[in-house]
Amino acid sequence: MKDVFGKALLDFQEGNYSEDIITFSSLDEEDTIPVPYLFRNFKEMPKLEQEALKLCKGSILDVGCGAGSHSLYLQEKGLTVTALDYSKGATETCTLRGIKNVIHSDIYSFKNQKFDTLLLLMNGIGIVGKLNQMSQFFDHVKTLMNPGAQILLDSSDIIYMFEEDEDGGVWVPDTGTYYGEIEFHMKYKDEKSDSFFWLYLDYKTLEMAAEANGFACQLVRNGEHYDYLAKLWIK
Fold first, then answer.
1. Domains in the chain: how many in total?
2. Which residues form the signal peptide (predicted)?
């Protein structure tokens, strides 16, 4: 898979920032990811992320660490954190930023280590891709969790992106799949990524999926726009 995301991170880290990442989705939406935002400090983070970082305990696995802003903050607080990302450019950026424990791997290939906190921020649960793959995800993360470990994740209910009916209901296309399964590709400078699915979960769906796979699920905090922070642990 072309590492468009990682290329943008490395360019910024090495002082070659000139433009942002453009995303294209199956919702016919074009959006921008401002690259400098991925390098934000704690004060610049949304309240949900700040809350999640305060709840981190013990040894931490930062899943989908990106530019490593969360890992860097936790490391500076004296916590033991491992930054994990499938993007080679992202992990190289994390190393350049001074993060000590950096792993280049996808979550399913990463094995034989256990943690007290699994952190999935910036809609990190999106890596699952599709709702019917949640059981595979939960089965695997169980193998990465110490007794009493927690998962902290944020996501969004993207129902607001669909049109409202005259009676106040929401018109969601009948595709036979969950409405939060969105297909994306990215463009950075003149390079396009391959397409991939990214999952957005409303809290109730997350809670049901968690309970079906032996996890308890708690709503920690609602965000400002259909987003939320949740805490999960093995029952």
1. 1
2. none
